[in-house]
Amino acid sequence: MSNMEPVGKDGIRVTALERGLRLLMALRYDEGKKLSDLARATDLDKATASRLLRSLALFSFVLKDEQDRYRLGPAIAVLERTGNSTQGIAPVVQPTLERWAEKTGETASFFVPHGELRLCVAVASGQHAVSHVLNVGDTLATQRGASGRVIRMFASGRPEANIELLQTSIGERDPELAAVAFPVFTGQNRLLGALSLSGTCTRFSSQSHLQTLQQAVAQAAGEIERLLLGQ
User: Fold this and answer.
1) What would the DSSP string read from start to end of 169-221?
2) pLDDT tens track of the chain, all 231 residues?
């Protein structure tokens, strides 16, 4: 295999993995590096570095910002299980999640694409006695649920056509759970993740409460987009 080489009798060296780890190490304690800088720092050609960075981005280990600089992504914080890493987007979205969880009483969460799944990188628990319980690091399928649908529908970025961004699910993933979700895009119109408010089907069955949550999740997503743009 071209990406593997032997290491004596005891194991196998996976060259592609080692190169990927070198890229991650080159990004530590850094505000971001251009592709050419990363290639130079890791002694890789730009084509190889670009290919590896795309794979790392697929699982949210790196992010590419508006200036085409790469930095560590939210999956790093999930691995550390700290929930307060200075890397990635979690510190940016957390205050917004906490404020809207308090305002609406429902669990507020932020999911990013993670291969074929969605990864929870930030969450603020609901205020009700019976609430949707989520934890940073939880992974869920994208086939069902409002935020899963957002991840699937807008994987290629902000749509040019007049497509409804707001997604709602009632008992779709779990018979007892309901959610509303809204996409968050970067300044370059790439999908960053899905912001969601979730709770019980009983509460969401109230049309007035549902409409309040739908308006809230759209407003919260807009707040996060402005924060990411520094506005």
Assistant:
1) EESSSSTTEEEEEEEEE-TTS-EEEEEEEEEEHHHHTSHHHHHHHHHHHHHHH
2) 344 444 444 445 568 888 888 888 888 766 778 899 898 888 889 999 999 998 888 887 888 877 888 888 777 766 654 444 334 677 889 999 999 999 999 999 999 988 888 989 899 999 999 999 999 888 898 999 999 999 999 999 999 888 899 999 999 999 999 999 999 998 788 898 999 999 999 999 999 999 999 999 999 999 999 887 764
Nearest to 154 by CA among 118, 130, 125, 127: 118
Angle between helices 15-27 and 46-58 (to 10 degrees): 80
Cα distance between residue 148 and residue 141, in whole Å: 7
